[in-house]
Amino acid sequence: MTSLWRWLLGAVRGVVAAGRRRSGAFSDLWRRSLQLRVVVSTLALGSAVIFVLGMVLQNQITERLLGTKEEAAIAQTRNAVQIAERELAGTRDSDPIRDRLNSAINKLTSSSPDQSAAGPAGAFEPVLVNDAPYIAPSDVKFAGPYENVPQSLRDFVLSSPNRTVSQIYTVERNGERNTYLIVGVPVATTSAALRLYMLYPLAAEQRTIDVVQSTLVVGGLVLLLLLAGITNLVTRQVVLPVRRAARAAERFADGELGERMVVAGEDDVARLAESYNEMAASIERQIRQLEDFGQLQRRFTSDVSHELRTPLTTVRMAADVLHASRAQFPAGLARSTELLVDELDRFESLLGDLLEISRLDAGVEELVAEYTDLRAIVRRAVESVRVIARNAGSEIVLNLPEDEATAEVESRRVERILRNLLANAIDHGEGKPVELTMVIEGNAVAVTVRDHGVGLRTGEADLVFNRFWRADPSRNRHTGGTGLGLAISLEDARLHGGGLDAWGEPGEGACFRLTLPIEQDVEYEDSPLPLPPVDARPMTQPAPLPLSVPEEAYP
Questions:
Q1: Which of 245, 264, 242, 241 minimizes the C-alpha distance to 253?
Q2: Is 233 exposed, middle or buried (0-12, 13-18, 19+ CB in 10 A)?
Q3: Residue range 334-390, pLDDT digits in tens
């Protein structure tokens, strides 16, 4: 029994899941298809209009049929009353009342031309009854199917002796339900209180109403189908050009700048196509101009960088000679030679960064990736900035995993990214510790470099990767950076298929997060490390990071 219930529960869950999937598919189709929304909306509104019109037509036809039937039935009943009064007028009081009623009924049914119980109102069944308020129910005498006359109609006829009353009533005979129009009227006699009821079957009218209903239903369905087809055809004439325009725009966005729409006719759609073509042509011209300008700018940067190499080499040789002989110079001149060598170092770094950024812009850089333990890369990057950190008074704290953090990367580029991030953190850390944390999880590895210095103001996190941008140009720098380090780092991260993000708050420091895929061409979903960092979240206590090795401090 338990297994049966489990099977039923599993079947119900399967049906619910299938229903949700289909509902989700229909919802997606509903959101994406303008044609479907227009057709369904038109069908819904058309169904409502057709239903209202069908109900109005059916009510009008039914009322007209029943009204005509009632008028003819009342007229025929009044004629029957006259026949019954004449028939009962010549009887004696000593005659049995039931025989008198049967005789009158026979006269009524034999008065039609074809000797059948029918007249202008159609077939009928007469009922004569000797009834009055003062007569006990057991003493009532009648002729005809008196039991088919409803009690409500009897009471109304007894309370209105001078009125003709009609009512539609359904009775059950031999297991079948039959609907009648019953007309009741008093019969004027001198000897007894008599009432005449005429039962007119409504079978013919019911058949007519059924035919009308079926006709309206079939006609409504056919009309809905025609309306759906017409709406689909009309909507298609509008939607197809829009879809063609959307496809052309998608191909244009994908880089096919020569994509254009076909202009046919002079209607609104043709004007739309002409406007789109003009817009595409204008955008293509501007893109071509920007591409030419970008190529010219990259060529100029590359050429200038290369051309400056030769005079820079000459100046470097002369500066080195002067610097080597600075002990023989006066103090002011010796200091000048030292400044000259420092600026030449910075100039060489700037030329190298310009060449690198020009190659990245040109898209000629290729990633030479191999599986490497990222912990070794981190230690090399830390070692390269150790002297700078010592001069600034900052301590570099490493939080590295115990096991190998192997990923498919190009060591040179990743080391350059980490070196730039560490140097930037030291410059803005104001002598406070700089924390480097690495976590590998899933398909990604993340490295954060956290400082506790001046931080970043609102909106500056999106500007730090701009070329030559500085938060505060008046600050003293320890590394003498060129202003291109973070921009090159961002391009290196993108070249790996990863990302580089920044966060900062005034007075709370800044945090840069590098996220790289473990394997190339394998996308990752989320970065293993959060940003903002855990210790920067308000109203929460930072949880200690799970360290697998003791913290390493580089003074």
A1: 245
A2: exposed
A3: 788 877 777 777 776 666 666 666 666 666 567 788 999 999 999 999 998 888 888
Calpha distance 287→489 (Å, rounded): 27
> What pTM, to 2 d.p., does this model score?
0.45
- What is the separation of C-alpha 359 from the centre of its chain, rounded to a whole number of angstroms? 43
Tokens, residue 548: 């697998």
Report the alpha-carbon angle 292-294-295, nearest 5: 65
Burial 484-517 (b: 16+ CB within 10 A, else e): bbbbbbbbbbebbbbbbbbbbeeebbbbbbbbbb
Q: Do the beta carbons of residue 481 and residue 427 sit within 8 Å?
A: yes
pLDDT of residue 550: 40
Three state DSSP letters for 423-455? HHHHHHCCCCCEEEEEEEECCEEEEEEEECCCC
Q: Is 258 exposed, middle or buried (0-12, 13-18, 19+ CB in 10 A)?
A: exposed
Which residues are bridge partners to 440 per DSSP?
445
What DSSP designation does 541 have?
P
Distance CA 205, CA 72 (A): 13
| CA separation for the pair 254, 311 (Å, rounded) | 44
Backbone angles phi, psi at 37, to 5 degrees: -65, -40
3-state secondary structure of 277: helix
Per-residue model confidence as pLDDT tens digits over 85-120? 777 765 555 456 677 777 777 777 775 544 345 556
Q: DSSP letter at 193?
A: -
Please answer whether residues 449 and 418 qualify as being in contact, where contact means their C-beta atoms are separated by less than 8 angstroms: yes
End-to-end CA distance of the chain: 72
**Residue 438 is encoded by which pair of tokens?**
């690495």
- How large a percentage of the chain has pLDDT more than 70? 82
